[in-house]
Specification:
Strand 7 and strand 8 form a beta hairpin. Helices cover 0% and strands 67% of the residues. The model is unreliable at 1-7 (pLDDT under 50). Strands 2, 3, 4, 5, 6, 7, 8 and 9 form an 8-stranded antiparallel sheet that branches. Strands 1-10-17-12-15-14 form a 6-stranded antiparallel sheet, with no helix packed on it. It has strands spanning 3-4, 12-17, 25-34, 43-51, 55-60, 63-64, 66-72, 76-84, 91-113, 117-128, 133-139, 144-152, 158-160, 163-170, 173-180, 184-191, 196-205.
């Protein structure tokens, strides 16, 4: 079910943080992550990538986030989490929790304003060896779409129908996040993978 919060204005988006890969463990803390300027409708969107163990909980400033979408196998996972963070400051600790040691834990963080419905639509695809990799979801009028890809091996691939926010190459894999404000059914694609990939996409409504 979508997470609904106060909003109503057109959704805005700013990529705000791409921390270094975390230390493996059943609890992984990213300290004082930038959240961007405070706002009465500010939302925080966190892309989470882990290997070995899937993150089962994510908190921000001690508050539990809502998981919008996940694409996972026995050895790796990619997720998008979200929360309205109007009550937090401009930085906060982001903590991942799993049932065992999560290896190569990484996050990418975006700031939104104007959200009324978080996760109005979601989509996940295991693209295996497809190149380009693609994921599709419907972006509502005045809304936003956010997508992420985790691929192996590392690459310098290119997003289409999307604006890239971050790309990090580490531990023989690439994690990248991108967004679009185009409305309707949107297919965001990533070419130049040279291997296998997960993709996830979530949309947000004003």
């Amino acid at each position: 079910m979508p997470f609904v919060a106060a909003g109503g204005a057109a959704v805005t988006w700013t990529a705000v943080a791409n921390p270094a890969v975390g230390t493996a463990g059943s609890t992984v803390t990213f300290v004082a992550v930038p959240l961007g300027v405070a706002d009465a409708t500010r939302g925080t969107v966190v892309v989470v990538s882990t290997e070995s163990i899937i993150a089962t909980s994510v908190t921000i400033g001690g508050v539990t986030m809502t998981k919008g979408i996940e694409e996972a196998t026995a050895i790796s996972s990619l997720q998008i989490w979200g929360l309205i963070t109007s009550g937090l400051g401009t930085t906060a600790d982001i903590v991942l929790t799993g049932s065992g040691a999560m290896t190569a834990p990484m996050i990418m963080v975006g700031r939104t304003t104007g959200i009324n419905t978080m996760f109005s639509a979601t989509s996940a695809v295991n693209n295996a060896g497809a190149d380009p990799a693609q994921v599709t979801a419907t972006v509502p009028s005045g809304g936003l779409g956010v997508a992420a890809i985790m691929s192996n091996p590392t690459n310098t691939g290119t997003w289409s129908n999307a604006t890239v926010d971050y790309r990090t190459n580490v531990n023989s894999k690439t994690l990248s996040m991108a967004h679009t404000s185009s409305v309707g059914s949107q297919t965001m694609s990533y070419s130049g993978i040279g291997g296998v990939s997960h993709m996830v996409m979530a949309t947000f409504s004003p």
